[in-house]
Amino acid sequence: MGYVTAVPHPRSQASGSARAGRLSLAVALLCGALGAAVALLATRQSWSEGTATVAGGAFPLTATGSDVTGVPAALAIVGLAALVAVFAVRRGGRVVVAALLALSGAGTVAAALLGASDSSALDEKAAEASGDTSASVAALSHTAWPYVAAAGGVLLLVAGLLALRYGRLWPAMSGRYERDGTPRPRRKAPAVDPDRPEDLWKALDRGEDPTGA
């Protein structure tokens, strides 16, 4: 009877890690890109509406997300940049960038939720429309777009958490490294025949000394 062991085979462990790395990479890229796009789109939409009393009667007012707060849009851009930068760094640098991505998502969520009930942007517009600095907006109402921006922040946060957990399994932006992170063997330069002028020119193009000096 053959010997049975409960210890997993190293090859199966490597295969499982590679599969987890590919899956987490795909999900993180999707969540990060979609989250940033959703947050940026939401900040351009109307977050609150109301009216201001002017000489001619009620004047309708609208405040977009960027009028209320510029934080979600700024953090969405930072998160998108961090998502790209994750592949340009390794080890400790990758952890730092992944943490920045996660924090960008969390900050986007917090800023969007705080802006969901904000009325200061409309009050400022009411003061401008009426010419009275003490004027405030009437018939105030809020839309669902702040919560859409918060959802985009959640997706950025998920991408950051995935980068923190599985980032070590992801490839880096370098032609000298394979998918598993091991360095590729350097190609040996072809031998130069001094009797062939074309070989001499090719060596010079590569920045080599064809004379061997």
UniProtKB/TrEMBL annotation:
Checking Pfam families in the record gives: Trp_oprn_chp
Give the compositionally biased regions (Basic and acidic residues): 193-213
Q: Which residues cross the membrane?
A: 20-42, 70-89, 96-116, 144-164
Coiled-coil ranges per the record? none
- Transmembrane keyword on record: yes
Sequence segments annotated as region (Disordered): 177-213
Which superkingdom, per the lineage? Answer: Bacteria
Q: Which UniProt keywords apply?
A: Membrane, Transmembrane, Transmembrane helix
Matching InterPro entries: Trp_biosyn_TM_oprn/chp (IPR019051), Trp_synth-assoc_CHP (IPR011746)
**What protein name is recorded for this chain?**
TIGR02234 family membrane protein
Q: Which organism is it from?
A: Streptomyces purpurascens
